[in-house]
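Protocol step 4 of 6: structure prediction from sequence.
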Amino acid sequence: MGLDPVSVNIDQHLLQFMDQLEILEEKRQKLNSLIEEGWFNISKARYSMGNKQVSALQYASEMEPLVCVHSSLSEKGDVVFKCEQTELKIEDQKASGTVENIGPTEGGLRRRMNVKQKETEEEDTSKEQHEQKPKGSVKNEKSQCQHQDPLKWFGILVPQNLKQAQAAFKEVITLSAEIATLQSAVLATRMEMQAQIKEKHKIGKELKE
């Protein structure tokens, strides 16, 4: 006598459930090891640079996230988490400005008065342009300046341990999204399996009656 379709579906979901739990356990162990590795490298960097050189005191006053997590629904109805990284902006941009000539100029006092009047007019014009500048462009410039590598907060030549810590925690973010997605799939599989078990019990009671 063969198994009924409900029992076969329960067995299939049970095997899928066990496989998902095994993968989830492996990812959690990897996550814990990466977190330990990241903090250990930060401790090494603090030992070489000093405690005050690697702390929250070096954080920027205003920060923008370099990684965003988006959630969506799959075809099966499970929640899927995905990380989206923002590209770093080029910090070393050449600032446009005028070069001031230092030295004696011809014209004496009259020349200096003309220069001062010209500078005053330029300042008034720049103020008017700044006031008329739309808020959106100001926000874009602000966000471009804030999208920078966090390692620059701690100096230009940072130790290798600090770079390794950053790489470890970046992988932690991606792995956390994968674990959250897998946990959602595990919960969905368990709910389906429980529903099929209830259906099997219901069918068994009807056959006995």
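Step 5 (inspection) to follow. The longest strand covers residues 67-73.
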